[in-house]
Structures are given as structure tokens and as C-alpha cells.
Please model this.
Amino acid sequence: MSSLAWIDFDEAERQRAQRIMALFQERETRDELGLGAIRDSIADHLFPGTSTIQTRLRYMLFIPWLYRALEKRQIPEAQLRGEARDAEIRLADALKVGGESNGIIGRDAGPRLQRLPSSVYWAGLGAWGIRVFPGSLDSLFVTLRGRGRSHGASSGEDALAGAQAPAVWNSALPQTPSDLLERAVFRLTTDEAQFLIDRLVASQPAALLTMLAREGIDADCDYIWTHPHLSAFPAVARRLVQHGEIFSQVMHGAALLYNLALSELRQRDDWIDDYRERLAAWRDELDPSAVRVWSLEDFWNVVEHPAHAVRPAAKRFVTEWRELVLAGREQVIASPAARQLVEERERRLKTSQSRYANHAVRDRWTGASGADRLTFRWAQAISHLRDLAHAE
Model:
């Protein structure tokens, strides 16, 4: 049995560790071949503050509203945590009363909810400058507990504590609806939408998400590189999108080959046929000339991000896979070298939990792991942009 204990991390390391732990619970972030740091670097450049488990944009306001009310409560920390949890669960009920059905976090779980909206949106609130408190959610509760203790101090001590207490939310945060926990909706008001756009402009001026939000661009497309306004994107963003497209396209073949190999080991003819068809489609859609002129040196420079360290082994894997694809995409499906490259990569990453080596783990495999193309959180970005565009 394994366990994870906190060492003496600073606050940045603590939050980073929490984000990594959260990824293990997210189905969409399965990273069987160790490409997650590259994927997340691209996503954080283009769409900072988003995550694959965000649903609707107004949660970026719901959370500050709920916690701003709790900040006024002079109660013990345990009670404060309990009231915060109760408020977030009540919010799900209020959204149902308001007529919402899709995108409610905890809609079906109710009091059994494990992942609260505050934990889903906490990092994004900081990235967008809505949350100005620099710490984790846990450290906020500790800070609020300290404020509560000052309640019994002398007037001079109380004033000093209040002056020293750090701000938690941006001072321009819109007014909390009076009936928030009785009836709530996801539709933003125009003032709320403008506040969110202003926060993006101030905190993430170079991000593509900011440009799309500021210009009110709402497009319906599956991938950011098929966006109808691609030619109007800033040059830096367009360059990254183009790199993201070819990276997603090229490495999709490796993910499909991994799933095919597992299907063969499981002797599931239906899965085998499906992945062979998908690999054939990948082969036919791949543009060899684009792969040939793709500069990996420029790619690594462009995707570099302070929050994500791309390890040399990941770079080697991408480089070697690209070389195999260029050597003959017609044969890559059956190529022993391609299969060996994918298998060795997974075995090094998963060690004793490798599905190639561990029969018990492989038998629990349900037929798909990271088998879809990387989209770099475009689905979440387009949802947020649509919420901004439909504000009233």
C-alpha cells in the first residue's frame, strides 16, 4: 500500500502537487505515454486557467460569492469548512431550481460530492486575477480562522489584524445575487461578463483565450486549428496552434497503436478491428509534408512553460516516433520498431503497473486509454467563450 505525505513544500510546490494529484482523478487527462507536460504547456499558453473538469464559466463568480459571505463568519475553522461545503452543495440544488440541468457540479452526487467546485476552479480563479489571495484553499481556511480569533482581541489589536489581513478577491468583483443559494442560473449578466473579460485582459494579456473573449468571438469547431478566425489570431498564438495541430496529429498514431497492442493482448477482436480502422484513418489523414517540415527545435522553444517541465525522455519519444512516421507511415502500424518504442515508453513510465507486463492491470483495462486526439482544453475554452457571448 502506498501513501503520499506532505513534506515541507513552499506554497507554490504544494499547489502544484495538488494539481498533479487531481489529474489522476480526471478521465480526460489520461497520459499513458508521458505527453501530459507537453499537452498542458500548450493548453496553459492558449487557454490559461482552464481545466478539463470545468463546466460553466459562472462558477468563476459563484465561488468568490460563496466564500466572500463566509469570510464574515466568526466561527472555528472546522465549522467554517463545513459551512463552505454545505454552501457549495446547496448551490447545486439552487441551479436545479433555476432550471439548469447540464454542467452542474454535484447534480447527482448531492451531499456525497467528492470534488467541490471550489477545488475545480481555484487555480483558474488565481490565473485570471479574480482570486488575489496567493495560497491554497486550505491555507485560506487557516487565514480566515486567524481573522476569527481576532474577534476577541482589543479594538486596537482587531484593527491591526484587519489591516494586516490579506485580500482574497479582486475588489471589482460583481455584487452577489441576493437569492444565490435559493435559485441560480449559469447565464452571465453583461456586467459579470465584462468583469471576467477585464480580468483576463489584466492577468493574461498574451493568451489566445483573452483575445477571443475580448473580441467576442464564438465559433463552433472541434479543434482550435479549424477555427474560422485562425488567420486573425496573433502571430505567436497562431504559431503555437499550428505546432499543436501537428503534435496532436502525429502523436495520435502512437496512442492508437498503444490501444491496438493492448486490444491484441486482451484478444478482443472487436477492439482490434476498431483500432485498426482508426489507425488506417490516421494514416490517410496524416500530411507527410507537414510532418517533414515540422521543426521540433522551434516546437520545444514555443511550448516551454514555467509550470510544466518537459523531460528529455518525453522529447526523445516524440522525436523517435516522428522519425518512424517519416520513414513510412504506411508500415508504422505493423512496424516492430514502432510497437517496441510505444511499449518501452509505457513500461518505463508505469513500471510494475504497465499493462504490457501486469496481467491484472491489463485485465481491468476497459478498451480505451488516451485514444482521442489532443485538443488542449479547447472544449472548455469554447464553452467559456460561449457563456461570455450569451451574457445578457
The radius of gyration is 24 Å. Residues 235-266 form the longest helix (32 residues). Residues 59 and 121 are 7 Å apart (CA to CA). The chain has two domains: 30-48+232-378, 59-186.
